Each structure stands twice: as C-alpha cells, then as structure tokens.
Amino acid sequence: MALIEIxxxxxxxxxxxxxxxIGGGGSILAVPVLAYLFSVDEKSATxxxxxxxxxxxxxxxxxxxxxxxxxxxTAIVFGFPAxxxxxxxxxxxxxxxxxxxxxxxxxxxTRRMGMFGLFALLMIPAAFSMLNxxxxxxxxxxxxxxxxxxxxxxxxxxxxSVTGIIGAGGGFLIIPALVLLANVEMKVxxxxxxxxxxxxxxxxFFLGDALVRQIDWNFLLTITTISLIGIFIGSYLGNFIDxxxxxxxxxxxxxxxAIFIFYMEFxxxx
Length: 270
Known about the structure:
The protein is mainly alpha-helical. The chain has helices at 3-22, 30-37, 42-66, 72-96, 111-132, 135-140, 149-166, 171-182, 186-212, 217-237, 243-268, and strands at 100-104, 107-110.
C-alpha cells in the first residue's frame, strides 16, 4: 500500500473524528481526500462523498433525534425539494457534462475544474460559518415553527442541485434556512439539518449515481466504515475537548483547503 493511500485512510478517520468532536463540518473534507489522496475522478469523488456524507449525517441525526433535537416534519418539508434537486443533478446533469465546459483563447475550463472550483468556492462560507458561529441566528429564532413554502421550495431545489454538483451536504446553508425560513430553534435546526443532509445525500446517491455508474463498493464501504469509527471515537473525545475552540481551528483548516484546491486545479494543472 502506497504512503499516500495510508494518508488517505488516516484522513478518513480524521473526517469522522472531527464530526464526532465538533458535531459537523468534517464531511466537507471527503471530496479533497478522495480526489487528491486516492486519485478518484471528479464524478466518482463527488458521488462517493455523497454516500460518506449521508451515512455520517444519518448517524449524527439519529443521535440528535433521541436527544429530542430533530423536527421530522420540518426535515421532510425542507428535504423533499432538496432530494428532487440532488437526484436530477446526479442522474441527468453530471453524467451529461462534457470534459471541457468552456474555452476562452488558450484557457479551457474542464469539468473537473468547474466541479472542484465550485466546491472550493463554497468551502469559504462554510469556513466562515465555523469561525463566526451562529450568534445572530440564535437571536432570530423563537422556536415557534412556521413555513414559507415558496421560499423553502426554491431554497431546497437550489441546495439539492448544489449538493449534487459538489458532493457535500451543505449544512452551513441548511441551518440558516431552517432558522430564517421556518423559525426553528438553533439546537433543533442543527439536528434536523443532519436528517435533511442524510436524506438528500443518500437518496441522491442511490437514485442518481448508483443507477448510472459503476461503484467500487469495497473501497467506498471501507472509507465510510473508517469515518464512522472516527465519529464514535470523536464523540468520546468530545467529553474532554472544547469543541468550540476546535471548530474555529477547523474553520481555518477548511479555508486553507479551499485555497489548496484552487491552486491544484487552476494553477498546477495549467
């Protein structure tokens, strides 16, 4: 086994550890780990990431459900349009994307550059959400749930489409939407977002990618299992580690990773 693959498996464990300790965000590293440490192509990396993200979110969501921090009705209302968006994108759009999306003079924007560039771009607000916390949102929500169905439909379709393209759950987008569009209390919004991420990621994977591409199940289940082991270890370590301080450090790390992806795709590969 090559050293870089060993680093890949260690990174898979780190994804789970971060999820277990800080409660979210770690799965955003799945795509860069798959792409740069295991040399998985962009279509498979985003597909496998959906499975890893969805499985990890499901474990976290079940834990939050038993703590009373999940509103299942809200999860269904928000999750349904997102599921439609991610499934359509993974089943129809991603397989149809050409190798070269755009050519301007000598510059060619490839499918890989487009997908990973968008992913890196969205890592930046995800990093800032970890650095800034959710203080303003906490003041906004009162806990009396109400639904703005028109905005929820639009937000869900957009979220699902973005999730389908980049292979990440988008918790940093879902949580503010739950608070602002449905007035969900912050703790419930965090728990409910995990169920929404699990639903749209896993259903999008099975109805989208699993039907149109060859899946290396041995590899995918190995990476996912290692990540899940990391979650349980991280949950235990969370009893002794200040998750808030670690979350800020992780936010800086994600920001650096976004710069790294831009560098690798738009400078090194040119």
